[in-house]
Amino acid sequence: MQKLDIVLYPQSGLREVCKPVAAMTDAIDKLIDDMFYTMYDAPGIGLAAPQIAVQQRIIVVDVSESKDQPLALINPEIIRSVGEISWEEGCLSLPGIYGTVRRPSDILVRGMNRDGKMVQIEANELLAICIQHEIDHLNGKLFVDHLSGIKRARALQKFRKLMEEEAELAND
Ligand code: K1U
Ligand code: ZN
Predict the structure, then answer these.
(1) CA 80 to each of CA 30, 83, 106, 120: distance values in angstroms, whole numbers, following the listed order
(2) Is 36 domain-assigned?
(3) CATH number of the domain that 40 lies in?
(4) Is 164 a catalytic residue?
(5) Is 142 in the pocket of ligand 1 (CB under 6 A)?
């Protein structure tokens, strides 16, 4: 398995709408293995293909504490959503930045699993939040886009500052 580089904001690939996967292949299966490896290593609870510079509709998530409940979905679609939940989200493409996002708390999501079978999954709380966060990535959307104008501006300003500081440290 291979650890892949994670694309950071403001790279333009994070703002693209990803293409549906036509069919499950060995190459997609390997990509999913690499995505899980990269996600667990980061560490994160989710990862979407555009975060590793692949503009295809693939997500992986595992919100379990024991890190033994991997879920990969290809061409995921939310077909029902109800309720409301607020959660402080982070993003591997905006490391060091957090913000409270309000989303539906309960969702029904449909997609293909890595065996090529169509599945429907009921998700709530953190799993529902994480799946929605990852599907947003497939549509070129980031969690900061859910924040109010001022909070979004502050979060992005903080991220630019963090990146500048990191670049300065690397040059020392
Ligand atoms: O898609 C991503 O950028 C991954 C992101 C997913 C996510 C986090 C929080 C709410 C919704 C979606 C992350 O995994 S950020 C890292 C993180 O949240 C975490 C890392 C280690 C342990 C627990 C959480
Ligand atoms: Zn993210």
Answers:
(1) 30, 11, 8, 11
(2) yes
(3) 3.90.45.10
(4) no
(5) no
